[in-house]
Please model this.
Amino acid sequence: MRVLGVDPGLTRCGVGVVEGVPGRPCTLVHYEVVTSDPDTDLAHRLLNLDQRLTALVAEHRPESVAVERVFSQHNVRTVMGTAQAGAVAILVAARAGLPVQTYTPSEVKAAVSGNGAADKAQVTAMVTRLLRLQVAPRPADAADALALAICHVWRGGTRDRIQAALRRAR
Model:
């Protein structure tokens, strides 16, 4: 199963693509961070994200998309931007006919490190180890997106296969 993970953000949106099956190590396909200038008009920032995610879906052909679920933060502006970027990722997936699953940060951390309270350094170290990389993916947004994709392969892969079988049966 090939999964595109998205760590949403307006200024920096982490994107990672991995391939794997539940219970086995995943393989890195691609990662990057989609950036936008905070001084650019919001509509153009969202359009930039939409266009890049659409191109990545077309290029890497994921079977599913995993997006970090927005959680409560103290900074409402940050929450709004994260939610808007996450909505763009979900829309791109829906437009491509791909199933989408959202995960909380603690679910992702627990899946890749065994600790739902792991810090960014621990998540990055585990992603590097799990994908058997020589160098840690940077910046942290990219590592977080890869962690989301790994989490979905391991936790959501079975769920997606069941849903796909149900759709085919209809």
User: Anything to note?
Assistant: Strands lie at 2-7, 12-19, 27-35, 64-68, 100-103. The mean pLDDT is 91. The CA atoms of residues 1 and 66 lie 12 Å apart.
